[in-house]
Write a structure and sequence with these properties.
Helix content: 40-55%
Keywords: Isomerase, Multifunctional enzyme, NADP, Oxidoreductase
Oligomer: single chain
Enzyme class: oxidoreductase
CATH class of one domain: Alpha Beta
Distance between the termini: 37 Å
CATH topology of one domain: Rossmann fold
Shape: globular
GO molecular function, one term: isomerase activity
Catalytic activity: GDP-beta-L-fucose + NADP(+) = GDP-4-dehydro-alpha-D-rhamnose + NADPH + H(+)
Largest sheet: 6 strands, parallel
Strand content: 15-25%
Strand order of the largest sheet: 2-1-3-4-5-9
Number of strands: 12
InterPro entries: Epimerase_deHydtase (IPR001509), GDP_fucose/colitose_synth (IPR028614), NAD(P)-bd_dom_sf (IPR036291)
CATH superfamily of one domain: NAD(P)-binding Rossmann-like Domain
Order of helices and strands: EHEHEHHEHEEHEEHEEHEEHH
Radius of gyration: 19 Å
């Protein structure tokens, strides 16, 4: 179900949970032009794993709308090392916020998930209907199960209590505020950090794992934020919505784009003794695009602007998992 202008953010009190993260901060930037009052709370001010504290905060602040972008996140190593933390922490955050939003009669809530919710071998491009049709990728199943629970929780409150709670599933994201730690970052910021270091050190080459042929999809976080506001204003239905760019590139092509942005002109060496991972991971964006939303930031342009942000914030860039 969708109706244009169904939920007007103007004049509303809008809570962005996780406002210091890459996604949350992008949503805060995007909301600046919506004429709403943005509510935020740091972890020191509000522990989202504390049920009583969350309920009291909602009762006091009375938000009209909620973007639930707070989560414990990390790469494969972190997921594999701390499975209990990734499952428990994320379950607590989403359960406390969604229940408090219900108790406080919040007008609309959006839960932010992740493309890792889909089966490891889902048909490409991945449609929303692929959810729960096969086994998950084992390396991040703890995080994925928590995110699936969040989708189902939003659906359950819609069905049982008539709440206008929706879910959006972003693809691989990049942009300002990303994690550039080589031990825990995702592929795009990791490549950027490696290329930057190689240029700084005068190295003649950088190495990538595998053959460079796997294909991956990327979306600038400001495009995601725009899509989230679009959905908050225009979408109201049970099923989650994919948010992606609709196209993908090979890892080698991505590395070449990053090298151009950084100004690294050395060789790109493929270490084929290392694993490639999944051959392709592309989400279908047809559902969202049929509503009239399309991404605005081309990948090459987005990589260039992200590198400028990295240079400007090099001392502040988040180099470890939060």
């Amino acid at each position: 179900m969708m109706a244009a202008g169904a939920f007007d953010l103007s004049g509303k009190r809008v809570y962005v949970a996780g406002h210091r993260g890459m996604v949350g901060s992008a949503i805060v930037r995007r909301l600046a032009s919506e004429g709403c009052t943005v509510l935020t709370a740091t972890r020191a001010e509000l522990d989202l794993q504390d049920q009583r504290a969350v309920r009291e905060w909602f009762a006091q602040e009375k938000p009209d709308a909620v973007f639930l972008a707070a989560a414990k996140v990390g790469g494969i190593l972190a997921n594999d090392t701390y499975p209990a933390d990734f499952l428990y922490d994320n379950l607590m955050i989403e359960a406390n916020v969604i229940e408090a939003a219900h108790r406080s009669d919040v007008g609309k809530l959006m839960f932010l998930g992740s493309s890792c919710i889909y089966p490891k071998l889902a048909p490409q491009p991945i449609e929303e209907s692929a959810l729960l049709t096969g086994p998950l990728e084992p390396t991040n199943e703890w995080y994925a199960i928590a995110k699936i629970a969040g989708i189902k929780l939003a659906q359950a409150y819609r069905r049982q209590h008539g709440r206008d709670f929706i879910s959006a599933m972003p693809t691989n994201l990049y942009g300002p505020g990303d994690n550039f730690d080589l031990n825990s970052s995702h592929v795009l910021p990791a490549l950027m950090r490696k290329a930057h270091q190689a240029k700084h050190d005068g190295a003649g080459e950088i190495e990538i794992w595998g053959t460079g042929t796997p294909r991956r999809e990327f979306l600038h976080v400001d495009d995601l934020a725009d899509a989230c506001v679009f959905l908050m204003k225009n979408y109201s239905d049970d099923e989650h919505v994919n948010v992606g760019s609709g196209s993908d590139v090979t890892i080698l092509e991505l590395t070449e784009m990053v090298a151009r942005a950084v100004g690294f002109d050395g060789a790109i060496v493929r270490n084929e003794s290392k694993p490639d991972g999944t051959p392709r991971k592309l989400m279908s964006g047809s559902k969202l695009q049929s509503m009239g939303w399309h991404p605005a930031i081309a990948l090459e342009d987005g990589i260039a602007s992200t590198y400028r942000w990295f240079l400007d914030h090099h001392g502040e860039a988040r180099l470890t998992v939060a």
